[in-house]
Write a structure and sequence with these properties.
It is an enzyme of class 2 (transferase). Keywords: Antiviral defense, Magnesium, Metal-binding, Nucleotidyltransferase, RNA-directed DNA polymerase, Transferase. The chain is α+β, with helices and mostly antiparallel strands. The strands form three sheets. The protein has a four-stranded mixed β-sheet, with no helix packed on it. A four-stranded antiparallel β-sheet has the order 6-7-3-8, sandwiched between helices. The relative contact order is 0.09.
Length: 453
C-alpha cells in the first residue's frame, strides 16, 4: 500500500475525483439495496491513497476557518507529511480521537443565530475521507424524495418537485419544522442505524467520537451528549441516515413529499388529510427522539408557506408559479441596507463591489422565481440606495448641486433638486439624480441586474 508520506508532495491537480462520488448534476444511480457492509475493511478504504488525495483536494476547495488549534487549510499538507504515519495508525487500530470543535454563531435570515461547530482542518480532512467512502454506500438507498446534501441533487430540484405537487391539485401542505434538529440528534439512535450498514467497528468508533467531541466555547470545552454539529463534512450525511427512516415510512403510506435536510413538506388535497399526516409525523419523529416545533409547523395552503426561500402563487389560468418568499425578500432588503449603509464611509465603487458579490449569489439561487416585475422594482430600489451612498460622499466635497451639474444634469433640474438636500432619501429618487447617476452607470461599475434584460 502506498503511504501518504511518500505521495503527499504530488500536485493534487493531477489526481482524479474520489471514486464513486458523483459530481453535481449527474443522475443518481439506482438503489443498490440495504446490504450491510459486513466485515468489509472500510477503514482501509478511508485511508486509501486515492481517497485521501480526493479528500485533501475537497478540503482545500472548501477552504473555511481554522478550528481550535489554529491550523489553516494551506498548512494541512505540510502537517500531514510530518504526521500522517502516526494518524493513519490510530485510524487503523480504532484509537483516533478527534479534537473539540470551535463554536461559531452566524446570523439567521429570520433573526437569531445558528450555532456551528467548526472542526479542526485535520478533522475536516478525515471526515471528508470517511464521507467519500460512506456516501456511495448509503446514498443510493435514500428516498428519491430527499434532496438535501446529496450528490447530483440541489435545492432547486426540491422546489420544482414541490411546485409539481401543488400543480397536480395538492394545494395543502404539511410543513414540518424540527426543534433544533442538529442539536437534538440522539447519538444512540443514530449509531444503531449506522451499525445496520457498517460492519467495521473501528469506523463506527471514530464516528461516535466525532459526535461526542466537545465544543470549545469561551475558553472552556463543553461535553456533548446529543447532536451533530453543523460545520463538519460528515454531519449532513448522518442527518440523512437518521431522517431516511421517516422518508421510508411516508413512502410506504403513499404520501407525496419533499425533504431537504430537516425541512419536510408533505402535499395533500385537504386540510383534514394534512392534520392526519401531521399527527403521523409527530409519532415517527418521536421514535427518533426528535420533536416537532409546533410554533413553526403548520397545515396550511401551499401558497401561505415557504420552502427553501421560495413560495408559490397561482397565475391566471390556474398555473402554479414560483416566487421569492416574503421572509426571504425581507432578509434580502435588510442585507442591502447593511451594505449600503450611509455610515460606512466607503467609496461608491467599493460599495458596488460588495453588492456584486452578494447579488450574484442571490440572483443565482432565486433565478427560478417567476416574478420579473418584483426584480425590476428591486433593481430600482438598489439604484436608489446607491444614489444615497453617493450623496453622502458629495457632502464631504462640493455641494450636490455642483456635482449634479458636473455630471450633465440640466441647470433647472439641478436647482429644483437642490431644494431637497436635507432629505437625502427623497432626493435619491429625484429626476436630477437619475440623470446624474443612471442605472447604467452602476452596471458599468459591475452591479448585476436582477431583472432579465
Amino acid at each position: 500500500m502506498h503511504q501518504m508520506t511518500m505521495q503527499m508532495e504530488l500536485p493534487l491537480e493531477d489526481r482524479g475525483e474520489a471514486p464513486n462520488v458523483r459530481r453535481s448534476g449527474e443522475a443518481c444511480p439506482a438503489a443498490q439495496g440495504n446490504e450491510r457492509s459486513g466485515n468489509d475493511p472500510l477503514m482501509e478504504r478511508v485511508v486509501g491513497r486515492d481517497n485521501l488525495f480526493a479528500a485533501l483536494k475537497r478540503v482545500r476547495k472548501n477552504k473555511g476557518s481554522p478550528g481550535i488549534d489554529g491550523m489553516r487549510v494551506d498548512e494541512l499538507a505540510d502537517y500531514l507529511r510530518e504526521n500522517w504515519e502516526r494518524i493513519r495508525a490510530t485510524l487503523l487500530d480504532g484509537s483516533y480521537r478527534p479534537s473539540a470543535v470551535r463554536r461559531q454563531e452566524i446570523p439567521k435570515s429570520g433573526g437569531g443565530v445558528r450555532p456551528l461547530g467548526i472542526p479542526t482542518v485535520l478533522d475536516r480532512f478525515i471526515q471528508q475521507a470517511i464521507l467519500q467512502v460512506l456516501q456511495p454506500i448509503f446514498d443510493p438507498t435514500f428516498s428519491p424524495h430527499s434532496y438535501g446534501f446529496r450528490p447530483g441533487r440541489r435545492a432547486h430540484d426540491a422546489v420544482c418537485q414541490a411546485q409539481r405537487y401543488v400543480q397536480s391539485g395538492r394545494r395543502w401542505v404539511v410543513d414540518v419544522d424540527l426543534e433544533k434538529f442538529f442539536d437534538r440528534v440522539n447519538h444512540d439512535v443514530l449509531m444503531s442505524r449506522l451499525a445496520k450498514r457498517i460492519g467495521d467497528g473501528r469506523l463506527l468508533r471514530v464516528i461516535r467520537r466525532y459526535l461526542e467531541a466537545g465544543v470549545l466555547a469561551e475558553g472552556v470545552v463543553v461535553e456533548r451528549h446529543e447532536g451533530t454539529p453543523q460545520g463538519g463534512p460528515l454531519s449532513p450525511l448522518l442527518a440523512n441516515v437518521l431522517l431516511d427512516e421517516v422518508d421510508q415510512a411516508l413512502e410506504r403510506s403513499g404520501h407525496t413529499f419533499v425533504r431537504y435536510a430537516d425541512d419536510c413538506n408533505v402535499y395533500v388535497r385537504s386540510k383534514r388529510a394534512g392534520e392526519r399526516v401531521m399527527e403521523h409525523l409527530r409519532g415517527l419523529y418521536a421514535k427518533l427522539r426528535l420533536r416537532v416545533n409546533e410554533d413553526k409547523s403548520a397545515v396550511a395552503r401551499a401558497w401561505d408557506r415557504k420552502f427553501l426561500g421560495y413560495s408559490f402563487w397561482v397565475a391566471p389560468g390556474r398555473e402554479v408559479k414560483r416566487r421569492v418568499a416574503p421572509k426571504a425578500l425581507d432578509g434580502f432588503k435588510e442585507r442591502i441596507r447593511q451594505i449600503t449603509s450611509r455610515n460606512g464611509g466607503r467609496s461608491l465603487p467599493k460599495v458596488v463591489e460588495e453588492l456584486r458579490a452578494y447579488l450574484l449569489g442571490w440572483k443565482a439561487y432565486f433565478r427560478l422565481a417567476d416574478t420579473p416585475g418584483v426584480f425590476r422594482a428591486l433593481d430600482q430600489w438598489i439604484a436608489r440606495r446607491l444614489r444615497l451612498v453617493q450623496l453622502k460622499q458629495w457632502k464631504r466635497g462640493r455641494t450636490a448641486y455642483r456635482e449634479m451639474r458636473t455630471l450633465g444634469t440640466p441647470e433647472w433640474l439641478a436647482r429644483k433638486a437642490a431644494r431637497f438636500t436635507r432629505n437625502w432619501w427623497r432626493l435619491s429618487s429625484h429626476g436630477a439624480l437619475n440623470t446624474a447617476l443612471p442605472g447604467k452607470l452602476f452596471e458599468k461599475m459591475g452591479l448585476p441586474r436582477l431583472a432579465p434584460h
